[in-house]
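yo

u said u wanted the structure for the complex thing, so here. seqs first:
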Amino acid sequence: MNSATTQGKAALELDGLRKSFGKTEIIRGVDLSIGDGERHAIIGPNGAGKSTLFNLITGRFPSTSGKVRLNGQDLAGLAPFQINRMGLSRSFQITNIFPKMTVFENVRCSLLWARGYKYSFWHMVSRAPDLTEAAEAILEQINLTERRDLPAGVLSYAEQRALEIGITMAGGANVIMLDEPTAGMSHSETDYIVDLIRKVTEGKTLIMVEHDMGVVFGLADRISVLVYGEIIATGRPEEVRANPKVQEAYLGAALEAEH
Amino acid sequence: MDLILVNLIDGLVTGLLLFMLSAGLTLIFSMMGVLNFAHASFYMLGAYFAYQISLFLGFWVGLLVAPIIVGVAGAGVERYGLRRVHQYGHVPELIFTFGLALLIEEVVQFIWGKSQMAYEIPEVLEFTAFAIAGNSIPAYKIFMIFMSVAIFIVLLYVLTRTRVGMIIQAALSYPKTVEALGHNVPLVFMGVFGVGTALAGVAGVIAGPVLGTFPGMAIVLGSIVFVTIVIGGLGSLWGALVASLLIGWITTFAKSYNIEMANILTGIGISPPENMSESMFRDLWTVTSPQIADILPYILMVLILVFRPYGLFGKRDA
Amino acid sequence: MTDTTQKAALSRPPIITLSNAMPWIVATVFLALMPVIFPSNSAITIMNQMAITIIFALAYNMLLGQGGMLSFGHAVYMGVGGFVCVHVMNYVEDFGVPLPLPVLPLFGGLFGMGLALIVGSFSTRKAGTVFAMISLGVGELIAACSVIIVAFFGGEEGISGDRTYGLPVFGVEFLQQIDVYYLIAFWLLLSALLMYLFSRTPIGRMANAVRDNPERAEFLGYSARWVRFYSFVASGFFAGIAGGLFAINYEIVTEENLNLAQSGTILLITFLGGVGFFFGPILGAILFTLLQTVLSLQTELWALYLGALFVVTVMFFPGGLAGLIMMHTMPLKFGKLGSLVGPYLKTLVPGAIGILGLAAALEIVFHLRHAALGDSEMTLFWTTFDSHSVAPLAIAVIAAVGGFWLAKRAAPGMAEAYHAANTPRGGSV
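structre next:
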């Protein structure tokens, strides 16, 4: 462990996590502890393994060795849907929604499990006011109320990204993981998404991969720097910015330029 | 012992014939993600074209020309049909090839009618090659084995030793990368589809005289071919070979040795029910191996899927 | 005051509103009146067949349209339901169990569901090609078993029963086709309603989600595999009910009810009707039964035409008939449907002439090649002529070429008109 938790109980702990594809080791022993209610950003150059790390945590890929614990519970061997049910929800770098279903349906589907509907075939979704109400509240939050009945596939890119975040947090998971939420967005769109993230993750644990340093330093309580599958520094934004190892390994100049 | 040898040869013929179909099918599948439901229909077209050609120019010209026509037809189907449907996804592609299989069968009936064609083996090969303990082995069987092995060797050579083969092999594992490297993947697709269907055509040309050239011949063999590549593992050429031979031998042996279920059941200590004709399990007791020979591949497939969902040699997902 | 209205808006919407009950009321009235309008025995026979096919096609579309699973062996679930029902019929007759005939399809449903439970446990792990292949293999396996397990499947002759076994139900003995019609109509309404409601439940909605993006569904807490499994089992149930009705209607079930041809037919029907909308398979079943009945009486080549229609549909109209109809909701909303009539006629009439010309040419050639020796007279479109003379073939070919040429020339105009009709009045999109 190269860092102590700053805010009490840990929501997510990584312990010696490793992942190899064939002979190439992509994640080379990651230890990290993220406190309950913390906003944590993972940064690092392209190919550092940030998305792979996300995929390991959320059960998309099995890890080669090491442990992931969510609220103290080991996630080894669990499928994505099981991990989701334990209160962890994620978004994707490449927009991953249900393109043929309406915006409203996208949000409603993401509410179903969390609201206890499970595999029910004896409830009618249209006759569940709690679902409709909650889905509409989320649409309001992500500013898509006017797009309610359009197929999600026809939304603009920024709107799809907003929907992606809406789907991710709809289930009320306590740990939210966002994979490059502002990738490919203009400045005004980025501002909109950052406000949105701040609003919807209030009181929750947030872990995000992000390239835009403005977003990172604006949102994160703590930052980890991942380089070649290893975390070279973790700490508060100003600590990380001042860390010589980070300066050296990860585009110190770029960091300066952003701020 | 001698009978075993005869059965080994018969099973080999069936297995290699299956392989000629399953090789093309699995190549097409691994490259394009499309399971060509109409694959056996191209096999049928091969037989019919060869028959038609043999009427005027003889068997050997048919053997040479019919597969080429089939391959060109296959490439045309890829270019003008499949490529169009591709945009809708894999399931519509599969539905398209299914519809194509229906249509080809109807077209064949339209042109040649419903009855079996008098497509015969050439006179040059109508003799007994050798005999094993009184069981004569026709020369045509040896010819079939020779043809299949020759094609297999050529295929192996092309896939492992030529530039085109390298691209195809690379595309088997990393289709996206190959496209990114600037190869004309649509052209490669069309080529592979053409060659795959031409292989099926060859199989049809040489199997037509033995198994019969009739409108139902595609359906008879079609499902078995799919089962073969599922057992072998979708997309695996070696798997297709192993599974083809396995199925060829299993069905041949099951047919020639009359193993009765009653013997097996009493053998493991279960006594027959007192009143056989009233018993619910009477069919289980009277089952014999030749009876179930044709469904053994399906049983094998279900077992494999339950215990090894990716097939014998399969690695990649559909 | 505003408080209470808001609360009322949030409370549970009423179960039945006039607008959502309307289609079902219309369907009930329609089904009740059909035998009055078409009382002939042959018409009722066709309607019975149609209704059974509709249930089966709707069940099939629970997989294909709603769950994204392509099955090449779904006839098995309907067939097994049918076999079970015939056995129950015979058993009840032999042992005098007081089981009224109208509940018999339920047995078919339960056994169809049971089989789907077993097969689904391993076949629904994957969607797409793998699922399709397993369904094919299992379908072929069970179909092949029918000649081996004679006790259950009755070998090649199949199993037959007698639906008039028991006591009359409210005085109805089910001797007449018309009695059976109302029984089937009842089950059709019930099954269709249940299947429609199923698509509105959480599992039904998630079936769509898993079809569109199984991975995302997994990250929302749902196992894609179990979602598929439940759809599969439900579909097996309704297929089994269709099988039970088949057994009651025909009183015989054979291997033909299980085989690949049957499974392929239901795929064809469902796809022609349109997989994207609930009512698509209903249209498909009606259209197919009519086409089959009418065409097979008129021509030996009907399967060729049907195959061609299917391939053309897959290539050019993947939404099927329902998709084509629903493409016109926007023009209807804008009140511009009328503007389409002219351009449609300009393209479709020559197109139809072209198709008829082509069909005529095919018929003539077919007659030329396959008719008995010396039989050169044939009748086509109420005209009798010599199939060996050149003139009729020439006319057919000219009609075909000319028709297609005119249709092709008018097609851009039609596309333009369609585009214009999808634009609201007095403004661009």
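Residues 1-82+207-259 of chain A form a domain with the Rossmann fold fold (CATH 3.40.50.300). Confidence is low (pLDDT under 50) at residues 1-7 of chain A.
cya
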